[in-house]
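Reopening this one. Same input as before:
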Amino acid sequence: MKDMERNKGNHSESESNSDSFSVVEAAIYLSVQKEYFNYSKSIDFNNIDYKEVFKESSKLFSENTPVETKKRILILLAHFGTPESYRILEKYLKSSEQNLRDWALLSLKECRMFLESALLEVEGGFISTGLGGKDNKLRYYFIVSSKGGLTFSESHRDTLKRGFETISQKYNSEIEGINFESNYAMIGILIPMDAAVRDVIEEGISECNNMEEFLFLHYYVTNVKKPTNEEILEYLQQIRHG
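Same output, byte for byte:
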């Protein structure tokens, strides 16, 4: 997924059937995801002796096993995609070291994908972003600000909450939280993969501005990580200066 989307014309939209994909719910650093998939691409899975993999899987639970060895075993078990490999990965995740927890989460999710694809005879995949998600929804944070940098009144805050709740229901989305500051609000939201993020946010702004145009049409949205105060202030300064 794209890192930071500041232009209201940019959006993430799923063109394919979301039923064939599952979402990794945990927030996982993109650097870890990239390393995992690059490592996976480097393995020739056609020449793997999975009996040996199962024998070596006990090494996952030893503190003396090198991290790189554990990473390889986790990926191999994931690609085997059997109930037995799934149980091993599930067991390991419960006791995994902190530095391998994300790796174990990706392995378990990938194993489940392969297992379900074999049982249902349907090609599938999984989607993972920096912020994770829930069920078939991806997590986003977006920022909307007041026109002219004016301070939000209580009426504005109420209107903003009601407006975005209305549009969220329309798109089967789920607002997880709204954090108000003097002249902007940061909203955490879960949006289905088959809904365009742009539509949810822009219709929300339009709904709020229906009676009084107090929200700026431009917005900031990301599904990589929760924006820091520094990033938010930089964005606000940019839009104020055109």
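So the earlier flakiness isn't reproducible anymore. For the record, The CA atoms of residues 3 and 216 lie 22 Å apart.
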